[in-house]
Amino acid sequence: MANPAATRMLFDLVNESDTFKLLALSLFSGSTAILTFHTRALPLWLGWLGAVLSVILVVGGWSFVLNNSNIYAVLYVALPLLLIWVAALSVVLMRRVA
User: Fold this and answer.
1) Range of the domain at 36
2) What are the distances in angstroms from CA 22 to CA 28, 47, 55, 70, 89?
3) Could you give the CA distance from residue 12 to residue 80 in angstroms, rounded to a whole number?
4) What is the tens place of the pLDDT at every residue in 53-73?
């Protein structure tokens, strides 16, 4: 049987790493949004979606640290939105290359 203290420590470590992962994804989508607004290299709707996603990811990242059910709800919205944004960004970029 595993040591309960070690299991708890690993659980906390995973939660903290998820927070930093979401912050990194927020920086990526936010910087992509800023570049989109400045260069108009991508459609503006993709920039706005990235900007909104950036804010939602920061708020959702705190759900692992604060353990608040209301913030978990934000996270449930953020993750599908992230997948949609990445898929849309991929399609737009693939069409530009082809």
Assistant:
1) 4-97
2) 10, 18, 11, 17, 18
3) 24
4) 999 999 888 877 787 788 888
